[in-house]
Design goal:
alpha/beta, 9-stranded parallel β-sheet, 3-stranded antiparallel β-sheet, 16 strands, 35% helix, disordered C terminus
Length: 496
């Protein structure tokens, strides 16, 4: 029983979704995208940019599989279309959890479940089943011993708070008070968080010039443009802080406290129509870079200074298939070919719109036997230095042919490119401008020649032998997952 209590405490500590380790920022990954990259390619971009938290708008099996063994924290979602069935059927909720969460944990690091998206304002017909759905899903997590690892909540738009300024007197739309009260009670009882979609861009446009643009962009305000709440005398240096405080005060108005707020969506469009002049590259670059600095200073808004503002940027790619305005289709920080829309500092990785550095990596989807042949050739006759991929070295994990071949191919290519070496390896390699470095594993890049473009002149590429011994792959991540599963099993035995 002691072991069970001990592991219970560990799970509780690890499962505190936004605990004492401070704030972080993640990124939303929408899918209304033409030519959406494969799940493997998307995850490669996330790893290259050292993005550690992502939010999905569904529970896509390809993405969840590709995210396995990466350590990236994942928020999955029940879609608004799925709500009706789940909110009426505990068995449907249990089936959803088993299929979309239990089947992937712990190798895929799922830490949160968003139930619907802006249900009260965008799908009000589903409002009556929202809280039942949250309860059924939570009980299914409890039954799977996953409730300490995966927190359940539901994202709200600012539309549920009709008058967010000044923040001190903000309240929820009274027509939703009963439902929101039940949601807050659920969040309090389950130690979860209030999820808020907050867009200073939208609030700035709606204000018709009442608020200065600098206020929305986190830019310094002159003495004559200071924003002060007349009731609390709190100074608001940016609009996002004010929106978050409006939500905190609305929660307090219903007599709840101690429920942290995370911003599940925020961002700025980089392109708009003729009547959307503030949707621009300069403003989007300014907003998101300043947002990241704001998040990483680890402080909260004026009313809750000790609760950091964790935030998910909206979004990774432009969702160009959306039918709305031009600006609605242009919030992405990347184009689908992996190039940056504008320079954006993401942690220690960065998105550089002008990058001309190229790398040679294994093609996603290449079969293991071909990759093994290419790897053997690169590390042997090709004279690539493959030491970093050996056990105990920085590029060993993930211990896959895809990862090890990428490192070996790139090392060969960077050394031999100037003397005619190519990035081909019997069709298993490709050139990319996305830096594949991750953690302490560093890939050397080379500057792209303005005369040769991304690809050097054709030359005989290295060809792997027709056969060769398999590498001795010890899947450390699998061992960790098995160990975790055994611990959970031991918990169950001890509890009985």
């Amino acid at each position: 029983m002691k072991a069970a209590l001990y592991l219970h405490a560990i799970l509780l500590f690890c499962g505190i979704f936004f605990g004492a380790l401070g704030s972080f920022f993640g990124i939303n990954i929408g899918t209304d995208v033409s030519n959406l990259p494969s799940a493997v390619d998307i995850v490669a971009i996330l790893k290259a940019k050292q993005i550690t938290h992502v939010r999905l708008f569904d529970a896509n099996a390809h993405m969840l599989s590709a995210l396995s063994n990466t350590g990236i924290e994942v928020m999955v979602a029940v879609t608004n279309e799925e709500l009706l069935e789940i909110g009426k059927s505990p068995s449907a909720a249990a089936a959803w959890i088993n299929k979309n969460i239990a089947a992937y944990v712990p190798t895929t690091n799922i830490t949160a479940l968003a139930v619907g998206s802006e249900v009260l304002t965008s799908a009000p017909n589903n409002a009556l089943v929202l809280v039942p759905a949250m309860n059924y899903l939570y009980k299914a997590l409890v039954a799977s011993n996953l409730n300490y690892l995966v927190k359940v909540s539901t994202p709200h738009s600012m539309g549920v708070i009709p008058s967010p300024f000044p923040p001190s007197i903000a309240t929820f739309n009274s027509s939703w008070n009963s439902t929101i009260f039940q949601i807050l009670q659920f969040l309090k009882n389950t130690n979860s968080v209030y999820m808020l979609n907050a867009y200073p861009y939208n609030e700035y446009v709606k204000s018709n010039g009442i608020f200065p643009l600098e206020y929305a962009l986190f830019e310094p305000l002159s003495s004559v443009k200071q924003i002060v709440d007349p009731n609390t005398l709190f100074h608001y240096n940016n609009m996002l802080d004010a929106l978050v405080d409006a939500a905190y005060n609305s929660i307090a108005d219903l007599n709840f406290s101690g429920i942290p707020i995370i911003v599940t969506e925020t961002g700025w469009p980089w392109l708009g129509g003729a009547n959307e002049p503030d949707a621009s590259v300069d403003n989007a670059e300014t907003y998101n870079n300043n947002l990241i600095k704001r998040v990483l200073n680890d402080s909260g808004p004026p009313s809750q200074p000790t609760i950091p503002i964790t935030t998910y940027i909206y979004e990774l790619f432009n969702e160009d298939k959306r039918p709305q305005s031009v600006s609605e289709r242009n919030w992405g920080v990347l184009f689908t070919n992996g190039t940056a829309v504008y320079d954006l500092e993401l942690s220690t990785g960065s998105l550089d719109a002008n990058s001309s550095t190229v790398f040679c990596v294994a093609k996603p989807g290449a079969d293991d036997r071909s990759l093994q042949n290419g790897l053997n050739w690169a590390c042997g006759p090709g004279q690539a230095n493959c030491t970093a991929t050996q056990q105990g070295q920085p590029c060993y994990t993930p211990n896959t042919y895809q990862n090890h071949a990428s490192y070996a191919y790139n090392d060969y290519y960077q050394k031999k490119r100037s003397s005619g070496g190519t990035c081909d390896f019997d069709g298993t390699a490709t050139i990319t401008s996305v830096d594949p470095s991750y953690g302490s594993c560093s890939f050397t890049g080379s500057l792209n020649s303005s005369t040769s473009g991304l690809f050097p002149p054709p030359a005989p590429g290295p060809t792997g032998p027709s056969s060769g011994s398999l590498m001795n792959f010890t899947h450390f991540d699998t061992i960790v997952a098995l160990f975790a599963a055994l611990l959970v099993l031991r918990v169950n035995i001890n509890v009985l």
